[in-house]
Amino acid sequence: MLYNPFGKDQVKISRVGLGCWQLGADWGEVDPTVAKAILGASVDNGVTFFDTADVYGGGRSESLIGEFLAESKLQDEIFVATKLGRFGDLYPDNYTAAGVRERVEESLVRLKTDCLDLVQLHCIPTEVMRQDEIWEILETLVSEGKIARFGASVESMEEALLCIEKAPALTSLQIIFNIFRQKPIRKLFDTAKAKQVGIIARVPLASGLLTGKFSIDTSFEETDHRNYNKDGNAFNVGETFAGLPYEKGVELADKLKAEVPEGMSFAQMALRWILDYDAVSVVIPGATRVEQAKANAAIADLPQLGDELHQTLRTFYKHEVRDHIRGPY
Length: 329
Hints:
By secondary structure, this protein is α/β, with parallel strands linked by helices. The protein has one domain (3-324): Alpha-Beta Barrel (TIM Barrel). The protein contains 13 helices and 10 strands. A hairpin with a 4-residue loop joins strand 1 (3-6) and strand 2 (11-14). Helix 1 (32-44) packs parallel to helix 12 (290-298). The two termini are 31 Å apart. It holds the Pfam family Aldo_ket_red.
């Protein structure tokens, strides 16, 4: 595993983390025993960064993490990044000090801790980010010791750059970044590095498209966001299949299979591609099986992709992918 300084205070985290949205059951049901086994396998393979949110399963993901860390006595070893802003009565325009504080207190209980390592605004409206109040609320919570750091999970480059401008104390930005979503390379990375803002890369496998295992006939459970949100009917379409229409995404993934280096899987190539950018502090693939968690962690030990492959994937994005992306970007 590789470990990286994260944000302004230089705390060390693993460059491969675990995205815990899947543990909230929005990717199909995951048994709690299996969920804890996934957390354990990730830790055993060097992962020290878990990303979750209060809204994942209505607190289920946070609770499972809290129970796992307490049972394994790993609270001081694992960095837990959570999010608020889409759960309870905050969204879309009720981001009061009392409301934010209540969400933080609930996360503290579920995660069984006295101080949250990182709280991220969870894709809240842009107009709320433009106001000073939300940032002042977070700074107050830091001063009180309720949260150690704050960041933001955003949908677009406009929002990412706005957060950096509005909040000098910002620790991190979480963005959609993968082979199908390459805009941050030119629009954000240099600024983030200059300001010591860590980048958390989410949706790294484009909801599974970049595993190369899906076909036009693949079906998903009714409770899986890849079913109910494939066209953005529940939340931002970019969170599902990176904003690509499913059929187009399968077609594009099939075209890329010929580029996978010998000895790597498609998913490993896609994850290694992200880690090749030093602006990225951590990539957070999810897992619904222990084997997936182990395979994800192992990509940190793979060699970097060559310059020629990087150029091929950049050209592919510009000419084959970019015009098909839907949603804020």
